[in-house]
Amino acid sequence: MAFGATLVNGRLLGLIANFFPSSCTVQEATISSGSYGETGRTWGNLSGVVSVACRIAPASQQEPKNVDLEYAVNTHTAVLKGYYNTIKAAMQAIIDGTAYDITGVSFDDQALQTRLDLRKVDP
C-alpha cells in the first residue's frame, strides 16, 4: 500500500530553520590567580555547545527605583535547539557576537530544547 503524501511537509522544515535564526556559543570560566593574589577569569568554549542554533528575545527591562542610580539590567531569554544539560548558571553565552551572563537554565518536557535566562554583559 503506497501513500501519496509524505510525513513532513517541506515548507515546515523551512519554518523550523527560520525559528532559530541566531547562533549561540556557551563559555565557562577558568579562574586564575596572579602573583599578588588577584584573580582573573578566562572564558573558554563549552564542549558540544558551539554555534548552536537559537532564538533570543528581550524578556524585560528592569530599572532601579532610586532615581539617583543610573543603571539598568537588561534581561533576555534564549531557546537553544537541542538538549544541553552541561550548561550551568554562571556560564556565559555569546549570541550573535553579544555576551550574556547565564542566570538560569531549564529544559522542555521532551528534552528537545534548552532555555537560558540571560543578563546582558555591559562592555
Notable characteristics:
6-stranded antiparallel barrel, mainly beta, single chain, 123 residues
What does the model show?
Strand 5 and strand 6 (98-107) form a beta hairpin. Strands 1-3-4-7-6-5 form a six-stranded antiparallel barrel. 8% of the residues lie in helices and 50% in strands. It has one helix spanning 10-19; strands spanning 22-33, 39-45, 52-62, 73-81, 92-95, 98-107, 113-120. The mean pLDDT is 82. With 123 residues, the chain is mostly beta strands.
Instruction: Give the helix tally.
Output: 1
The biggest beta sheet is recorded as: 6 strands, antiparallel, barrel
Taken from the alpha-carbon principal axes, the silhouette is: globular
Provide the spatial order of strands within the biggest beta sheet: 1-3-4-7-6-5
The termini sit apart by 62 Å
What is the N-to-C succession of helices and strands? Answer: HEEEEEEE
Computed structural class:
mainly beta
Q: Which stretches are poorly predicted, pLDDT < 50 over at least 5 residues?
A: none
How many strand elements? Answer: 7
Radius of gyration: 19 Å
Percent range of helical residues = under 10%
Question: What value does the average pLDDT take?
Answer: 82
Tell me the β content.
over 45%
